[in-house]
Amino acid sequence: MSLPRAYVEHVAIRVSDVDHHVDFFREVLGLAIRDEQPADGSRPRQVWVLGSVQLIEDPNFTGPDGRLAHLGIMVDDYEGVLARAAAWGAKALPAGPNWLELPGGLNVEILQASAGAVEAALAINPRA
C-alpha cells in the first residue's frame, strides 16, 4: 500500500489584533491578503495572508500572540487519509469530518488537493 502525499497548506494562529499582524506581513514581508472572513457572531475575524498563514482574531486572549489553532494539510487521497486517521485514533471535530483532533490535542484540517498540486508543492526546494 502506498501512502498519500501531502503538504502543509496553512498554519492557523490566534492573535489579539489581526490588523497589527496583517500590517507586519504586508509592510515588512510584502505579503498581501489572500482571503478574509469578517466576524459574524459565531466565528471570529480571520485573514489568510499569502505564504500559508491564517490569522484568527482573539481579542480576549491575554497571553503572547501566536497560539496555534490548527494545521491545514493538503492531501492527494482525502478519503484514504480520513480512514487512516480514524484508525489511528483521530477524532472528527464538530466543524466537519475533515477537521480532526489527534491524540494529544493537535487539530488538523484535511483538504483535498487538486491533481498534481501536492507533487508541485513538494518539488519546491525551500533552500534553493
Automatic annotation (TrEMBL):
Gene3D superfamilies for the chain: 2,3-Dihydroxybiphenyl 1,2-Dioxygenase, domain 1
Domain of life: Bacteria
Pfam families listed in its UniProt record: Glyoxalase_6
All residue ranges annotated as the VOC domain in the record: 7-125
Full protein name: Glyoxalase
Organism of this sequence: Bradyrhizobium niftali
